[in-house]
Amino acid sequence: xxxxxxxxxxxxxxxxxxxxxxxxxxxxxxxxxxxxxxxxxxxxxxxxxxxxxxxxxxxxxxxxxxxxxxxxxxxxxxxxxxxxxxxxxxxxxxxxxxxxxxxxxxxxxxxxxxxxxxxxxxxxxxxxxxxxxxxxxxxxxxxxxxxxxxxxxxxxxxxxxxxxxxxxxxxxxxxxx
Length: 177
Ligand code: IMP
What we know:
Structural class: alpha/beta
Number of strands: 11
Bound molecules: inosinic acid
Shape: globular
Mean pLDDT: 91
């Protein structure tokens, strides 16, 4: 079933049940890898809200969840756009941190966030992303957990938006070709 948001036509791409199965699998992997540890999950708003909510339902070790945002502000002409984490109200010193992302496109934002977290004296920083676009694969970001590897098409639903719309959809859609 297709649908339209503003001028774009979308078609169903990954069904709700496929997403749910994958999210459970990813959570089980984290359960295995983090036995006897107590990580802090940092879902990145807004896109990761639905993914994080579902993921956490299957996570069993004691852990904290703290939603953060990435702000961008104009830096000096020489540094260009600087991105930084906002809303971090936990001390992450000596903590095992797991960043929860909706989708990795260029991975540039993520690269900066990982560096920022490492500079806070974290014990470890890993990334879980529901989707990763093919362009990101060549980049030097180590993403430990990936739900779906996709091509470079635009997707929405399950937290992902197009101009603010579509985050509430439980299936994932892609632009019609
Ligand atoms: P990156 O820094 O280029 O990796 O950008 C990643 C961010 O861009 C994601 O967290 C999303 O918010 C947004 N984004 C990238 N691709 C898409 C897409 O296909 N649909 C919706 N949002 C996207």
